[in-house]
What we know:
The protein is an alpha+beta fold. 27% of the residues lie in helices and 23% in strands. The protein contains 26 helices and 37 strands. A hairpin with a 4-residue loop joins strand 34 and strand 35. The chain is elongated.
Amino acid sequence: MKKATFLRKMLWLMLIPFLTISCEDKMDEHYEVPDWVPANAWEVLESGEHGNFSMFLEGVELAGFKPMLEGKNLLTVMAPDDEAFKNYLKLHGYSSIKDMPDSELKKVIGYHLLYYSYNKENLTDFRPFGQTEDDKEAETTAGQYYKHRTKSADVPSIVKDPKTGKEIMVYHLERFLPVFSYKFFATRKIDAKNNYELFYPNSTWTGENGFMASNASIKEYSVIANNGYIHTLSEVIEPLETIYTELKNDQDYSIFKSIYETVGDGQYLRNDDLTKNYAAAYGVDSLYQYQFNNLPDIALEWPTTSYINFITLTRSSHTIFAPTNETINKFFNEFWKVGGYSSISEVDASAITAMIANMYSNGSMIFPDEMKQYSEKEGEDYLNIDPNSIGKAKMCVNGILYGLKDMPEIPLFKMITKPVYQYKDTRSFLYALQGSGLSHSYISKDATYTMLIPTTDQFLASGIYTVYTTQSLQEESEGSRVDISSARKSDIMSIHSASISSGKSSELPKTGARVIPTMETWNYWFINNGKLTSNALFNQQLNPENNNDNIYCDFTLFERTDNGTTYTFNAQELLAKEENTLTHSLAICEDRRYIYYAFVQLMKAAGLIDSENSIISNIPADAKFIAFIPTNDAIEKALASNSIPGIRNASFNASGLQGEVYDKNALTEYLNLYILSAGDNTIEDYPYIGSAMKSGKYNTLSIMNATTNPETKTITYTDNGNSLSVQLDGGKKCNVVSTYHYFPFAFSDGCFHLIEDTF
């Protein structure tokens, strides 16, 4: 007995490389063999004490696994009796086990031989960390470590690599056997019988007090041998294939398989570990595996390429929702054909990728009873699958394959982004959307949006080239074209999109004036009598040389979607966020034709402006500010009456401001009355009719001498719905001029309005 115990311990040491470090000291808990058990697994099954297993043992010997059952390995044996094997052979057209091809026989018999030894308790609720796992953790994971490595593997296959044209050898990893216990379903809070039998329609759920070994019921649990446990079966376990193999074998899903390969960039990759360990034995230089990029590796038998990632191997699986060819063709005709595409193969890869993203779950199997709760748990942007659309349900060695009779709901194809993904002519904007990282920010059902959709010509006029082969946007840089940054793409999306406040329409008005904040903060669309502009374009009219005809453009309804409205617009170029600063614009002003010229000259007279460095000393650095600037005429009238503190006998001539500045501090204090700091006043929006900046009192930049006026002066800002005004404490009301429809001149650092009078 001591020699047998020593042998078993040595076998454990040989198996250590297949475990994670965290599991090395726990796996021995799964099997303790009493010294009084003399018989090995072969002898126990051969004895007839637990049933007749002659056909299974014949298969074990023919497949070369007999030494394992005789004690060369510590293992768990899932043993189908003779009646089970007779039914299996008849079903598959074999008169005897000897008629089975060697490769098929090894695959089937090997699937009944599990690494390590597990009794009923171990397989009902396998604990890879050992049985010391805390109760709270056990409540959420009981039965979820359900997959166990077997001795079943396909023989390596020779294929031609389509990328190189060379023949290569593809290595296939050993299969894992799914063991579904009653705890597996109880933890998930779903019905065991209905969910199990959907995938195994020829089997009956009998695991109420134990488990099912894939399709097979257990006749007797935990028959003990001196090299492991045996569980006898009433059926032969059918070896499961990969999701990819199942797709390849069913022509009803050939379109989905093809686009999955294309989007996932499926390719044969050399595996260094497999090559090092096994290539020489097969007489080749390299061993390969077929893998996908940025999509679940549904062609691999394992959910990870690492054999040491034990936890992932025992729990993780993929779920793939594959529409039939008929379903995809129907969707194409109703969606992409309307958008100008002539075939599914022509549809842009970015749009196909968005579709595929709603058809898989990576890391966890999803059963029909979980689909509703899963979509609610993950959020409305992910996997909204109707269980009634399932036409095929196939358990696979690496997860679940569902065949869908109807296309699942894809939020990106229903919400404000719908036409961007649907129409062939909107691909430039699609690439901006995809590269911005903002796709999922537009699909909330609780928000409403308005989106302007620019054309490829507008991108080109803005110096941005569309590269369809790589789904990218490029611009010239130092004599060559380079991809524009994700930040630039984000800016493009944000300046062409608006999140509409609750209670307001997402449709752009055809009459009247309206300011719409874009998703690029402190940037706006201005609508005036059915014409549209942005604040960046609107600001161009400050330049006396500007042609005002270029400021506004027409817009046309494109499509109404589930959460907003989209438009095209006929501006020559893309809209752009305002990069210029108001500080700079004021500081460099020397032309009397500018509408803020007189105010700037007063600031210069007070010594506030450093024109060379575009600095205005009284404007807070790195803070948004709001100025209410009197018109040039209003300031000239005030100077004529000597009503502006700190300066007298002043006027303007061809040389600029003339007069006596007798108190720069007083003049500075006066000019500060017209300026608000957004930060100091907690202002989150520039002022305009309907702005989030509400009517009320606001602190100015006044720095009056504390001995004469200890409190900062305030102004009262009023938005009465059709005009704006400001009023200094105890002073007269000054109306904002109506010439510019009460739109603010909004810059990156601040904004201003013109007012009709001085304080």
